[in-house]
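Hi there, hope your week has been kind to you so far. No rush at all, and the record is pasted right below.
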Amino acid sequence: MNLAETPTRTATSPTQAKSVATASGVEAWHVESPVVPMVALAFTFEGGAAQDPEGKAGCAQMLARLLDEGAGDLTSDAFQERLAARAIELSFHAGPDAIGGSLKTLVKHTEEAIDLLALALTKPRLDPDAIERVRAQTIAGLRYQQNDPGVLASRRFFKEAFAGHPYGRPSSGTLESIAAITRDDLLALHAQVIGRGAIKVAAVGAIDADALSAALNRSFGALPEAGTLRAVPRTTVQDLGRRVVVDLDVPQSVIRFGMAGVPWRDPDFIPAYVLNHILGGGAFTSRLFQEVREKRGLAYSVGTSLVSHRSAAMTWGYTATKNERVGEALAVIGDEIGRLITDGPSDEELQKAKDYLTGSYALGFDTSTKIAHQIVQIAFEGLGMDYIGRRNAMVAGVTQADIRRAAGRTFADGRMLVVAAGRPTDF
């Protein structure tokens, strides 16, 4: 079947994704929807910045940026012109545990889009001029960030929290590591990570199962199985209770803090997620927003989120305040964590958090691209194709006992690793 002639069918909900397999063994989760004549793909390869060679942090991100800088017989300019001529959107990215990408195209240009994606994945040119251009852009960005308190606080936090571990290295690299990356390093990482045996794919749009199977076979079927990934050891946030200063001559300190967490695959993730919303995840309703900003005016923004990597999880927070009020802000944050440890949330507070989290969930599925990215992340985490349909019921079912258990696992005794970039006077 010609991909551009995919027949129109009834739209399908993200909760009814179906599995589509190819002759080469690649599987995708598929949501067919003819509402808009477009196709969106999201895909993820296991293995990201944690696989960077020793002393060459930033290699995975550099590779991701180079995949669409020319492929096959197309130079970088020619490749980009082909994309632009058909309004095809193709991009790649790298995180700690994966290299991924996305593709969006009109149905009538699907065949060409798939061909360009296949070229980028199987035959990236990695031309010397493209490597040097991306290297120069990356180094310029790193230099620009050298005096950014937020960047410096975050980098130092991860360096201290995961000292000696791949997660402690900056994914974007350093001036020294980016300068040291060679074309051979990029080729080796490509061979190690980009393979059909370690890929998760999601497809959303006006394409039926047969046409999708053919498209996937063309885009991913020629890939090798991929190499062997280095094991990334399990780890946790180190030095809880320690406070670190990154000295910067600025009137306001940027603060990053963290403690233990629960990974997405863990049965206690959903209770921890609800607990985090109550503490600092709710934009205007969280305890930290109310106590730190609204009642005391200590900061303009404050919040927390859950970080879930393959081999580590944590509860991570941020704020910024005047140098002379850093100690006060941290004391308020610590007090609210302590109150949740000892007393937990009120029943009304818990119910409001659950109502918000269930009611707002659908907002993450309002475009084909968003649906594809949500589904591929769920596949990557191994949560099951029915997760979207189950998720709200799991949130609604969280009890006070669940919250107490999650608090014991994440907050423990309330100690945090704290990094402040600035010149705090009462730290």
